[in-house]
Amino acid sequence: MDYELGADADALRAELRTLIAEEIPEEFLGAFTDDPRDLEIAQRFCARLASDKLLTLAWPEEYGGRGGSVWEQTVVREEMWAHHEPRGAQYMGLNWVGPAIMAYGTDEQKAQHLPAIASGSVIWCQGFSEPDAGSDLASLATRATDTDGGWLVNGQKIWTSYAGMAQWCVLAARVGGGEKKHEGITLFLVPMGTPGITVRPIRSSLGPHHLNEVFFDDVFVDENAALGGVGNGWQVIRHALTFERVGIARYARCDRLLSALEAELGDDFDALTPSVRAAWVRALLAVRVARLLAYRVVHLQAEGTPADTEASIARIAVTQTDQLVAEALFAALDSASVRDKRSGAALHGAVEDHWRYAQAATVASGTIEIQRMIVGRAALGRA
Amino acid sequence: MDLVVPDHIVELGATARRAFGDLGGVDAARRAEADPAAREQAGDALRALGADDIDPVGDVDQALAAFTLCREAGRVALPWPVEGTLCTIDGRAVVLVDTRDPLVDHADLLGEIVAVDLEGTTWSAAVAGPALASRLAPFAVPVTLTALTDRAGADVDAIATAAWALSAATVLGHVEAAVALAAEHVRTRHQFGQRIADFQAVQFQVADALVATAGLAELALFTFWRLAELGAGARTDALALRLHAADVARAALRTAQQLHGASGVSEEYDVSVLCRRVQSTLRFPVSSERVLDVLVDTTRETGFVSLFPQGRQRARR
Predict the structure, then answer these.
(1) Nearest chain A alpha carbon to B193
(2) Is B265 contained in some domain?
(3) Residue B203: its chain A contacts at CB < 8 A?
(4) Which residues of A are less than 8 Å from B220 in CB distance?
(5) Which of A25, A126, A324, B30 lies deepest, with the highest CB count within 10 Å?
(6) Quick one: how many helices (H) and strands (E) in chain B?
(7) Does domain A245-380 have CATH number 1.10.10.10?
């Protein structure tokens, strides 16, 4: 056994940190804030990453990628999330839309979309969740009906991140019906500028752009827009989710903020109460455990070993760690914790920002309850 | 990065499990409480597995072998001082001790003993009386501590670090076995016309226990790799593993007993013996709260390897 990531991965981490130091201001808290300059910073950074093929590091070389190892991909995930995801909304296109198009797209779809995603010039959103289809995604009711040269789509999506700025949407809609609710679901690649699409932002504690409702009223979708064939949407979704299984490297931001906290407090750190310092040590431990569980999933996937249960275990640990660390940081900062970037917060508001984000950690991309069901059923079987 | 546990370590674990199973599994612990002389069978089994030849700080393979034997011994609450057998210096057993109330599990089986306290001070320990024979610590033996005439070699700090980590490995074995027994119990027990495993509240408790146990197991592998690389330099990691083992055990063992219902406290059920017998490992030499106190200071002073610098010395991976 050996827990060293290796020279290539270490060099990549150093390269990314240098790039981030050059391109990303210290007080950057992500692309989606009230300040439009933050999005510009992210877009500029993506162009820089794209020119070095770092944006598509995980992609095969035939699609313009760098064919990076799973551990190099892990380093990218860690460094990006640790530094408030300076790729903005790009990770969705890079992490699963692009790979899904590689696996299921037609030659035309590959030619149209892959270079755009690789250049970091296009933002995608994911039209999956609906008001009555959240964790139970297969119950979605948005319908695509046959029309001359394509389909007419009607329905509503919700909790759609970046819908207000996205140029394209991967839309899950029902075409026809089957005996089972998974049957008939089709994925469509839809331009967000198509007439009949209305985006309504939902005000959220996370800040702007994160949550939206998207309404589809007689939206015409071209007959060539189906990804992976009509009626095969569930298969594509399941395949696509394998790219997302490891999930966001939330532990990396936790790690960075705990480090920053000590630096910020300096010698005052030793004046923290014993219980706060105990919470700090337990937070460091939780971060280490979460990272090790995530690494186990990366390792199993690289081996080709099914890792559904391990992925759910890692997700539970990682998301709970996010919340545990948020509380530990708040405990250390007392009332200063609720100040934000504009009201003189410690660490440029990064701790306040982290706490708000952490509240959604156990819901986003599959609730912790669903993950517990997966783990529980794997151990206990079903009646 | 290589996260593959070597085949021969996996094989050692399987062999140990068979050997301890041949002794009767948890029944060996029951027999030993009735007749302490029966502990020798456990010692024979451990020696047959090559425990005497393993140096837990020798290299990664030996560290993992030591970890594996303690973990498997923990699964059956093996009535033998496994950590003291593995942690030796110049033929003397190295054990952890609290100077205020020096008790050592199975001290009567260990021969010459070098005792190390939480601060790292070393002592010579000698048996001072019969075992407590209490329910939670039947084999705990009072010892007297005297100044060590030699320092027992510079390696004693590394061996003491291994002892902290191995105590966590023993706890891990107890917890894994107890959670597996709970899962089996809820799969087979029916109430209200259905398996109790089909109640979501039960599924979620099992899931949380499995998440905690999986995390502890991964942390243990990492820590033993660090131990092999750094010896005494992995002291912070070993104390952290020990603290985490106690945190996980507290919650997961509670779940394991609770899901057994009244059977959870019946000595006819293995879960009761496991939850009871692990208490001396969890409480000796000191409570996890005292470990935490020391861990806070050592983490602050020497750092905590991570993706970003932590601690006053800003340790990094």
Answers:
(1) A383
(2) yes
(3) 372-373, 376-377, 380
(4) none
(5) A126
(6) 10, 8
(7) no
Which regions of chain A carry the CATH code 1.20.140.10? 245-380
Of residues A10, A29, A95, A83, the one with CA closest to residue A255: A83
Task: Say yes or no: A292 contacts chain B, CB-CB below 8 A.
Answer: yes
pLDDT, residue B314, reads 66
Q: Which of B206, B208, B308 sits opposite A259 (nearest CB)?
A: B308
What stretch(es) of chain A map to CATH 2.40.110.10? 125-232
Cβ contacts of A313 on chain B, cutoff 8 Å: 210-211, 214-215
Residue with the two structure tokens 């270079």: A115
Domain A125-232 in CATH 3.40.50.1370: no
**Contact across the interface for B207 and A274, Cβ inside 8 Å:** no
Task: Provide the pLDDT for residue A242.
Answer: 67
Whichever domain contains B185, its CATH number is 1.20.140.10
The pLDDT assigned to A245 comes to 64
B contacts of A299 (beta carbons < 8 Å): 1, 3-4
Retrieve residue A383's tokens: 């009646």
- Give me chain B's average pLDDT, please: 95
Domain extent, residue B208, equals 156-302
Q: Which residues contact A379 (CB under 8 A, 6 or more apart)?
A: B183, B206, B207, B210
- Asked if A376's CB is within 8 angstroms of B204's CB, the reply is yes
**Whole-number Å distance between alpha carbons of B194 and A175:** 38
**Could you tell me if residue B163 is inside a domain?**
yes
Average pLDDT per consecutive 10 residues, chain A (383 residues; last block may be shorter): 94 96 94 90 93 89 88 94 93 88 95 93 93 90 95 96 94 85 93 98 89 97 95 88 76 97 92 96 98 96 89 96 97 86 84 94 91 96 80
A317 with A372: CB under 8 angstroms? no
Domain total of chain B: 1
A266 touches chain B (CB under 8 A): no
Give the confidence band of B258 by pLDDT, cuts at 50, 70, 90: very high
CB contact (8 A) between residue B299 and residue A281? yes
Q: Please report the ipTM that was assigned to this predicted complex.
A: 0.97
SS3 B115: strand
Provide CB contacts within 8 A for A214, sequence distance 6+: A125, A127, A156, A157, A158, A160, A163, A169, A197, A198, A199, A200
In-domain check, residue B181: yes
Cα-Cα-Cα-Cα torsion A153, A158, A162, A166, nearest 10 degrees, comes to 0
Residue type, A271: A
% of chain B exceeding 90 in pLDDT: 95
